[in-house]
Design a protein that fits this description.
Length: about 300
């Protein structure tokens, strides 16, 4: 038996469509260690459960002892009951009780929330959103996740589904979205949207080839224009102190961030534009797991 390396730790899990990321955070909110494993989400809920339990066992056998678990998962989450009602990138998920799964296996206290809410929490407490009362966070990945810190607290809405920022319409006669809406933001500003425009490249490679392939150049130009439109609307609706961009796709936006800031600040209401900041997240793709580990600290 391996002796525990540290006690009084909280474990944060970010359950994604391809990966589960885990972080261990101590009582000072310092990251002690990180782990990851495939989620097998395409194979259904039971395989995700197996992956979660296997990862937790790996953490335990690495010598770490934790006393609480936080879980972030994409989709509509009932955080009070710990249930994921549905998740867009997971196969056959409906009313999955993630909290019960992990409580039964670990005998630890478990809190479940939307993954983008967790990412927003991490940035607000420890990252680029620290010191601000109002933070809008977007995770630009396969789709668009959204997290909101409003008046120094996570905004979840009436059903726990608030902050689905990928699903407001930027084109009233646009592309139909699986959510039921038309012209959703994420249909134009996500990895899936880029891949639809230039199917022969990944989203990452589309940004890399922007100077040598006309199709990539056009796709990126349209992406940025649509992103600016969406960010102006979010700025005018929420009047945030800062808008943070995270997720894998945001890495391709680094050369364009000055242009994005200038356009967004220039097009939103003058009072908002005068103080608004637009930046990238501090924790990048680890924001969700870090925030999940912090859920018990605000509960």
């Amino acid at each position: 038996m391996i002796a525990p390396r540290a006690n009084n730790l909280r474990c944060g899990l970010d359950v994604g469509g391809t990966q589960i990321k885990a972080v261990l955070v101590d009582s000072n909110d310092e990251i002690v260690s990180e782990f990851s494993s495939p989620s097998q989400a395409h194979l259904g809920p039971e395989k995700v459960r197996d992956s979660l339990l296997s990862l937790l066992e790996t953490i335990y056998h690495s010598g770490y002892k934790f006393n609480a678990v936080g879980i972030g998962c994409a989709g509509s989450v009932d955080s009070e009951k710990g249930i994921v009602r549905n998740s867009p990138n997971f196969s056959n998920w409906k009313d999955i009780n993630l909290r019960l799964w992990i409580e039964e296996a670990t005998d630890k206290s478990v809190i479940v929330d939307n993954d983008a809410n967790c990412a927003a929490l991490a940035e607000w407490k420890l990252g680029k959103g620290r010191g601000f009362k109002n933070v809008v966070l977007l995770t630009l990945g396969t789709g668009i996740g959204g997290g909101l810190i409003l008046n120094n607290g996570i905004y979840r809405g009436s059903t726990g589904t608030g902050g689905e920022l990928g699903h407001f319409s930027i084109y009233s006669d646009g592309v139909p979205c699986p959510c039921g809406n038309i012209g959703c933001f994420e249909r134009y500003c996500s990895a899936s949207a880029l891949k639809t425009r230039v199917p022969e490249f990944s989203a990452k490679d589309i940004f890399k080839n922007v100077t040598i392939h006309d199709k990539c150049q056009i796709a990126v130009k349209e992406f940025i224009r649509n992103l600016q439109t969406g960010l102006v609307s979010l700025a005018n609706i929420f009047d945030p102190d800062i808008i943070l961009l995270g997720g894998a796709v945001s890495e391709g936006l680094v050369p364009y961030i000055s242009e994005i800031r200038e356009v967004v600040k220039g097009r939103c209401f003058p009072a908002i534009g005068a103080h608004l900041k637009v930046d990238f997240t501090h924790f990048s793709n680890n924001s969700g797991a870090v925030g999940a580990a912090l859920l018990h600290a605000i509960d």
